[in-house]
Amino acid sequence: MNTKLKFILAISLFGMLSQHSILAQDTVIHRNVTVEREYKPVIQDVGKINAGPNAMILKVEKAVPKYSDFNLPLSVEHNIHTLPAAEIQHEKFRQMNQGLFRLGMGSHLNTLGDLSLPLIKNRDAKLDLNINHLGTFSHRLHSLTKMGMDFVKEYDALTINAGVKASHQHFRYYGDCFNQVGSMVNMNELGKDYENAIFTENISNTVNPNRKPMSWLQKDIMGDSLNTFWRASALLSIASNTTADNLQYHFGAKYNYFNSLNGLSEHFINASGGMSIPMDKNRLGVDFDYSNMMYRPNMSYFSTFNFWDYYSIMGLNPYFQMSGSTWDVRIGAKSSFAMTHGRSFSPSPDIKAEWQASPKYVALYGGVTGAYTINTMSDMMFENRYLYPDTRVEDTYTPINLYAGVKVRPIEGLLVDAFVDYRKIENQYFFVNKSYKLTHSVNGISPSDSTIYSNRMDVVYSAASLTRLGCRVNYRYKNSFNVQLKTVHNQWNVAAERYAWLKPEWETDLTTEFSLTKDFHLMASLLCESATRARLGNLNMPFNQKVDLNLAATYSLSRYWSTFIRINNLLNSRYQDFLGYQVQGINGLIGMTFNLQ
Question: Beta partners for 346?
């Protein structure tokens, strides 16, 4: 691996603390076909600590060729996530079985640490150890430490994958509280003046009728207390290595554990698999999935919590696959069945088509699909760690999702991907501040303070539709320059709410990387989001638009050592992702990276 690739990789891994993560969603590979392993243990781009990182779910997927000229539309998540162009270099780095050790420190008591070590690196067997830490130990306390081991063993007929992961997340509820007229509440003064006032929570969505509203002293609901999440997971799977003329199969099992120190613990058990058989030049197959969730309280005041203590879902997906040299069509149907609670039957189509109209220049794609998404506590607390500790967000059902797009590669190194996407969604969730009403008054308390909106978050639900128009443009010149622009326009139509709370209408993300010399490399990224609105009871609170500019640089000191510096939120933007939680202003990080041979 030459020096240039090594330090382009280093840029993509340098992370900081702010409000968004930059975990890869899709990859631009400059080859016609790339075959990806079923389980690919790579060091995730560290991103920015204040955004909930992606859920630590080990996925079992069939190891089939992935055509990089075909790509689904951008994710429907709240933010566009940047894809560093050096992800390609990152993958090459991993394939060369080298290790990495990295340390960094910065303003706001920010800390960073990484260790990636290949313990076994045989031709047919790999065992990798990955440890990652990101933390800020200022008033906006948030520390996340992850550790995992991933094993891959290849035989002539099949591949075995196994993995274990664990993480520790510690943070502070540092956000502001508000009263019923939308004014910020001074927690120290109000708590001191009316510390004996009792407020009772408002449960806006009662899933378990036995869960009675809980009452608290005012000082208890307005504090900036701490919480800790523990996560652990294990995966074992096998997948066939047979050719397209034979039976193909993949089977796996995984177990995820989530524990909120001040809330609930969740046990998630999943078994999935599938098989397909040849029919002339086509294939007939079926995929299945079974998930079981169990919940237990960790605090005595949650002896009865606002969700079922047991829940299970089964999914079935038969399909017929037709393929040609430049086209691929899948026709199937998805069905989800709730065993004990929730929707007993949730069907959706599964039709996808891809066509390389001109294999070197133009590709068209489209589909009519749908999904039933299980919103586990582990996933949701990653998305928004400030959720109230016994909030188990109900599942989301998308009965119909239509999309179509075109990819054009007019010249070497330039890729343009434009798409339109429409989704009809049942039970779409939106984050709001959790409310408490005064139930035991004290003399002198202001009527406007009779309702308190805390810095813990709740959810409201509504049927909704979402139309999205988006485009991605990527240009790459050899290994010295890369620029990528993503932009999406979101048009929400929400049935039961005035607005799509905290959902921006426009999202734009620009990332560029280039090498000034063989030893000196730079990266810049700019994230922009249009203004949004947050709900505070019957009030709507406008959010300012987000503009987040970040710069990074690395310099090679030797074959093994490099130093890096990163400045985040260079414009010192004071935006919020959740009402009351202002992000860090301008902040920086410096550190060293050592490549282990």
Answer: 336
* Residue 333, Cβ density class (10 Å: 0-12 exposed, 13-18 middle, ≥19 buried): middle
pTM across the whole model: 0.83
User: Which residues have a Cβ under 8 Å from the Cβ of 171 and sit 6 or more positions away?
Assistant: 141, 142, 143, 226, 227, 228, 385
> What domains does the chain contain, in order, with CATH numbers?
3-596 (2.40.170.20)
Specify the length of the chain in residues.
597
Q: Is 591 helix (H, G, I), strand (E, B) or coil?
A: strand
Tens of pLDDT, residue by residue, the chain (597 residues)? 444 333 333 333 333 333 333 222 233 322 222 222 222 222 222 333 332 222 223 333 333 322 233 334 444 443 333 333 233 233 334 444 578 899 999 998 999 999 999 999 898 999 999 999 999 998 899 999 999 999 999 998 999 999 999 999 999 999 999 999 999 887 666 666 677 888 999 887 778 888 888 888 887 787 788 999 999 999 999 999 876 578 999 999 999 999 999 999 999 999 999 999 999 889 999 999 999 999 999 888 888 888 888 989 999 999 999 988 899 999 999 999 998 777 889 999 999 999 999 988 999 999 999 999 999 999 999 999 999 988 999 999 999 999 999 999 999 889 999 999 999 999 999 999 999 999 887 777 888 888 999 999 999 999 999 999 999 999 988 878 899 999 999 999 999 999 999 999 999 999 999 888 888 999 999 999 999 999 999 999 998 899 999 999 999 888 889 999 999 999 999 899 899 999 888 999 999 999 886
Residue 451: C-alpha distances to residues 388, 436, 437 (Å): 17, 6, 5
